[in-house]
Amino acid sequence: xxxxxxxxxxxxxxxxxxxxxxxxxxxxxxxxxxxxxxxxxxxxxxxxxxxxxxxxxxxxxxxxxxxxxxxxxxxxxxxxxxxxxxxxxxxxxxxxxxxxxxxxxxxxxxxxxxxxxxxxxxxxxxxxxxxxxxxxxxxxxxxxxxxxxxxxxxxxxxxxxxxxxxxxxxxxxxxxxxxxxxxxxxxxxxxxxxxxxxxxxxxxxxxxxxxxxxxxxxxxxxxxxxxxxxxxxxxxxxxxxxxxxxxxxxxxxxxxxxxxxxxxxxxxxxxxxxxxxxxxxxxxxxxxxxxxxxxxxxxxxxxxxxxxxxxxxxxxxxxxxxxxxxxxxxxxxxxxxxxxxxxxxxxxxxxxxxxxxxxxxxxxxxxxxxxxxxxxxxxxxxxxxxxxxxxxxxxxxxxxxxxxxxxxxxxxxxxxxxxxxxxxxxxxxxxxxxxxxxxx
Length: 440
Fold this sequence. Notes:
The protein is mainly α. It has helices spanning 5-11, 16-50, 54-79, 84-102, 108-136, 142-150, 152-170, 174-194, 199-205, 210-221, 234-237, 250-280, 285-309, 315-333, 340-368, 374-401, 406-433. Helix 5 (108-136) runs antiparallel to helix 16 (374-401) and helix 7 (152-170) runs antiparallel to helix 13 (285-309). The mean pLDDT is 87.
């Protein structure tokens, strides 16, 4: 048997501890789904309580996304230096503090500060969990496992939304953040006991005690212990997180980042504005949460189906397809349905295809970059790309405030998915021509 732990994990069936680790990352991403959308669930109540204008609520909706961008870049890079497990635990701590303190806010400024802190944790978490799943899954199931991790996001939003819809009936908006803080705290012991450090990361970095740590993890996996680690070449010793900007990876980094940035602008238009749009139509806040739940049910189904189909077909082509179909789905959502049932179906359809695109992008990131920059690349793409998510609710908010109708705003916001698809088409062309390595 090869002494390279990465090859051992790639070539063997997944053990129970690997499956548990992947399952926990699904739960962690579900936390992200709930935490990110918690402000959307709470926003109708905040508007009523504080009497703020659409432009102001758009800014509040974006504060956590600003934190996510910063957290993804800084903490994503940290995960390639100190490890995936330690970074995840740090991020959970930030999320607990941010969510808990948001429930005590009494002004837009206070709430914005705590949402930025929550976003720092979520951004770093996304980078660390994407790398963790890629490195605990074997080669055959890697794309599927990454897809399952990614659909934790809409699952969390769906389950959380269903609970919050009930809690909001007899409580004010602060219950959203209190609930999120408690559930987030429960994941700290789960990660501590059931998610060991990635053997691939330890093999790549080879810190003191790496062999012993890998063998302890292999024992839990049911694998045979190894006697030594592969000797690092001089090129491997010179690896740096800045390699995402090297000639071999630069085009890939730029094109995937553009795709993520623009597609998320489309994706977050639905996620952030759907509750406010529904309330403006005259429905109760609990009904608004229900529509958002349907959008995330569609997203979960779309992401899961993409992962299964990707076992046989190109993940890049599937992602492009999801993005292209997202465009008419968003436009249809903006048609101004007055029936709650029809609006829910339109939101679910839009969620199906937009989230399939997001899931495909996560899989592309994790499988396109080597171990030593996997979390850094994920963090960079998410960090810069979240600029699209950050700008999305602000742009939509000011477009609404300027008097533009829902249909016009929806058409404009849908264009982001089209630009993202074009970027991935260019990536495929460059790969075909040899300008971008097929496997980094």
